[in-house]
Structure formats: structure tokens, C-alpha cells
Amino acid sequence: MDTATHTLHRLTSYRPGRDWDTPFDDPRVVQNLEISDLSHLPWFYKRYAQPLPLIPLPRDLPGTSPSAVSVLAGTAEIAPAGLDLRQLSRLLHLSAGVARTMERPYGTWLFRAAGSAGGRFPLELYVAAPRGLNVPAGVHWYDPLDHALVQVGPPPHGETPIVVVTGVPWRTGWKYRERGYRHVYWDAGTMLAQLLAVANSAGLTARLHSRFPDTAVASLVGSDDVHEWPVAVVILGEGTPAIDATGRAISGEVDATPVEFPLVTAAQHAGDVDRMGPPWDGGGPAEVSLDADEPVETVVLSRGSQRRMNPTEGLPGNCSAQLWARRCAVSRSRTSSWCTTSPGWFRASTDGRTSRPRSVPAGCATSCTASASSRASRATRRSS
Predict the structure, then answer these.
(1) Gap between the Cα atoms of 158 and 234, Å rounded
(2) pLDDT tens digit string along 98-119?
(3) Domains of the chain
(4) Nearest alpha carbon to residue 31 among 268, 261, 371
């Protein structure tokens, strides 16, 4: 029997001689959708009906001295710094702020600081901060157009502020149907690579987590888990992350009439977990510490691998596609490309291309690996 992610992949894959935008004749696939319909163009960002507390962010952004190349290479010598409102302003604007606009006959198109497939920009950012820090306490939605924090919830419990990244599947589905699920995570990889580089260039500690308590994080920021769901959590500093809500967050609306894609909803929630996993290691192979009942092997992808892995090696015997399809984020930057999944970690250097690791057996195909380029990197399994 197909898992939710097997089904999504099978019903959204490219087939020779078949137009990519022709939906499969299956009741689980949305049928009567006119893609790229300008009369049904999704909103570029969320909206909240009621007036909410708003904190304008400084537009005079602090500068940094290290070169971008040294920061990306991890060779820059940068003194540790604390997070304040100006640094938070810089982090948010250079990750997801509106960089330029274009007037079109049907409205104003907003372009963000990090690129997006098809110019769809399906991500929302939130900042959750406890009391007593140099940033505003509360759960705040980042308003990219006005470059401001909009408070949507009370200050959470914890010691360290976090950035929550959510995905809005309708924004990509409007153009790519159910295949837009892949684009949400590809775009997340691009944006997160930029966010981490911006943080590193300022000496800020930023820990990226792709495994976190899904329901708790969704509730924290007010996402409905159907038209908007959490993609990643970035902890901005050391200490316990401010992830525990102390009250209800205001939900807002992602669009006037968003369309749900049941295949996407099922695939997304197939990998939900209830606890925080380890952070991305920043470049090297990671030792992943999970519960004893969650078998894991670390797979390292690299063009410089010493040997090729047998196609059946590299994954636990009871690998479930629900786990592997979860939270694939592929950075399409030239410097590094990464795919973080649960329960394993994939790393790849692909010169601007995604890659399909040959080490993934057919029974564990995922929406991440199965949709990537056929120009696979070589793979090795790290031995203990």
C-alpha cells in the first residue's frame, strides 16, 4: 500500500509524452484548477483583519566587514555578537524582505531578497521572543512590505528567540499544482541558506532545526496546518528556544480563497513529530541523536566520495517514506546544497543543481530525492 508521500510522488511525477500540467485522473488530485489564473492570483503575504500592535523595524541596517565568500566558506573571523532590533531587522530584510517591486497590469508584483521558483515566494516568517531581551517580546509576524513586526501572540516561554518559517502551499500550487509542494521546500532551502549566512556575517548564533514539534510550532504562530504549516525553526542564540506558547496566536489569512491540495496536506503531516531534533551541523557530517526506537544512519553526499554505496545501503531497514519526505530543504546556491530529512541527514555539493542520491532505495523514495536532478552525487555512508 502506498504511503502518503509515495502517492504524492506517483501522482505528480513527470511522465514521457504527458504534459506536466495535466492532472492525473485520480479523486485525490485537484482536477478543475486553471493554473496561473490571474483572476485568482494568490496574495503575496498574509493579512490580518483586526488592527494589531505593530513595531516598525529600523531601515538603517548595520553593516558587516567580512566578504560574502569568506562567510560562505566558513573562514571569516567574526566576533560573537548579541541580537538586537537592528540586527534582527537586517536578518529579516536580507532573508525575506521586499527587495523590489514591478508594476503589472493586474497589480504590483513583490520580489523578495531570496529567490523563488516562478516568483511565487511561498514562505512566511515569524519571530518568537521571551521577555527580558533586546528584541520585542511576543510572537510576531514579519510584514515584508512595511518591514515591521506585527504581534500576533503573547511572549512564549523559553530563553532564546526563534525564527519560524512556514510554507503556504497555495502560492506555489497556483502555478505548479500539487508539484508545488516540492517548490515550497526548495525555496525554503534558498532562503534559509541566506538567513544563516546573514546571521554568520554579523556574529550571531543561528541554529537551524528541521525536526521540531509540528503541532506546537503551528499553534505558536497561528498557522492552520492546512493552508500554512511550519517548515523550519531557527534558534537565534544559546539556551532553551522560546517555543512554548503562553496563549493563543491570531491566525490571519493567507489568501481570500486558498485552494487545498489534499495530497500535499497528507504528505506534509505524514512526517509530523512531537519533539525538537538536532540542529543542522553547518557543513560537516552530523551525528544524529534520536530515540532508541528511531533507527538512523548518517549519509554524506559529496562529489569527492571515496567509494560508491550499494543502492540498498544507507537507510534503516524499516525506512518509511512518510519520514523521508518530511522537510526537504534544498539550497540552490552555488556554494552548497543541502537536504535535511528525518530520520537522516543528506548533504550535497552540486554546483547549483539538486541531486538524487543513488543510495536511496526505491522503497524509500521521497518527494525530495525523487524530484531532484538525475545527475546524482556519489554517496558514502559514514561508519562509526
Answers:
(1) 14
(2) 999 999 988 899 999 999 999 9
(3) 79-257 (3.40.109.10), 294-384 (no CATH)
(4) 261
